[in-house]
């Protein structure tokens, strides 16, 4: 019986990894859990470079979204306010602290949104795009117009041109500067829209739109479009869904939600489920309903997928 022969090589394992075809390496890395992906940058220089490649970021995010959802959470507790935590449900791991503090930023950072694994963060000094696992970040060009509390910020991806954009919507009040301390929300009547394409040196002013939007959690990205709930006004008591197409940079009002959903008569906010636009509706603290728009932009396609009771057992 012939004995097995082992080929002896003096090549380090890292060098052998670098000789693998890039397509194979991308397929391997895109299937790793996030924690393992972060550690794999130590294998060799080629892998470290690939982990920063936008193509790998996109492939890994698609793989995770389909098979291995993960969450990044921000603490609102006073003792650890602003701290980010990561949890990966694939290995039932405990919460892991993410040390994410861009250079020149302040201690109190707030998470604006995430997109394809990248985080948009802000503080009193500026706006930052961060990769929480490579620890790389960039500071966006300064934008000085109105205080940040008089508007909102959003971060999204244009799949057509493979570019990221940040949207700054500023509420333009009808008052003089000397009256600023006495302004309340009811005096805000218009929104001024500014857009920054990541990599560009300056913001672009898209002009005014005649509506204001609800709070930050009601913003979602579906199919290259950002979505908000508008604030009710004297013409309509129900909130409306307004979308912004990152390709054309145009706003559009969605067709009214059907009354059968009950969304116009209860508190709700927008979410994404399996790539579809959804609304999570609360009914008098009695139940939570998840409504899904099965066919994008079609009013009649809203259906109720889930009903979740709020009952909690007591001892």
What does this structure look like?
- The chain is mainly beta.
- Among the domains are: 51 residues, no CATH class; 59 residues, no CATH class.
- The protein contains 5 helices and 19 strands.
- Helix 2 runs parallel beside helix 5.
- The longest helix is centred in the N-terminal third of the chain and has 14 residues.
Key terms for this structure?
single chain; 315 residues; mainly beta; four-stranded antiparallel sheet; 14% helix; 37% strand; globular; F-box-like_dom_sf; Kelch-typ_b-propeller; F-box protein At3g07870-like; F-box-assoc_interact_dom
Question: Gist?
Answer:
By secondary structure, the protein is mainly beta.
Shape: globular
Major pleated sheet: 4 strands, antiparallel
Strand order, largest beta sheet: 4-5-6-7
Helices, by number, come to: 5
Q: Return residue spans where pLDDT drops below 50 for at least 5 consecutive residues.
A: none
The portion of residues forming beta strands comes to: 35-45%
Any idea what the radius of gyration is? 23 Å
**Helix and strand run:** HHHHHEEEEEEEEEEEEEEEEEEE
Oligomeric nature of the chains: single chain
Averaging pLDDT over every residue, what do you get?
72
Main structural class: mainly beta
Distance between the termini: 71 Å
Helical proportion, percent range: 10-25%
Protein name: F-box protein At3g07870-like
Pfam families: F-box-like (PF12937), FBA_3 (PF08268)
InterPro entries: F-box-assoc_dom_typ3, F-box-assoc_interact_dom, F-box-like_dom_sf, F-box_dom, Kelch-typ_b-propeller, SCF_F-box_component
Domain F-box: 14-64
